[in-house]
């Protein structure tokens, strides 16, 4: 059983909860304190995944790149996206403009990693109102993404699922496992 390493990037506007999703997944913690990411922060987590045979297990080391949030003054560095096998594009359900910017983030990621796998995380579902559901449904129609989830870093809603599904899909591209 060898170790496979894969790079994934979390991209999205500032303040959508990218760092909080990573902290929930890697450290099992949540904090209401907002800390803006400057540049990039890299976290690691090793997952044990099932192979295509019942007794086969794979160790996958995720290199999780937390990229500085996009603002109208500063975009995401293309250099940080290079070599990524997958991305979580994160938006804030309580801020419609972050949802509207999802296609821009998807297109940027795919322009650098055309074979990359993308999952969209509509974060802060714990603060969700029914009115935001209409905007969220439009995102699912974007054909380059694997799935869309309504997540909450605060209560853990679908956090493990988005990382595990992304991990499995990246491995499937290599070995047809998971």
From TrEMBL:
The keyword Isomerase does not apply. It holds the Pfam family Ras. The keyword Nucleotide-binding applies. It comes from the Bacteria. Gene3D superfamilies: P-loop containing nucleotide triphosphate hydrolases. Keywords: GTP-binding, Nucleotide-binding. One of its GO terms (molecular function) is GTPase activity. This is GTP-binding protein.
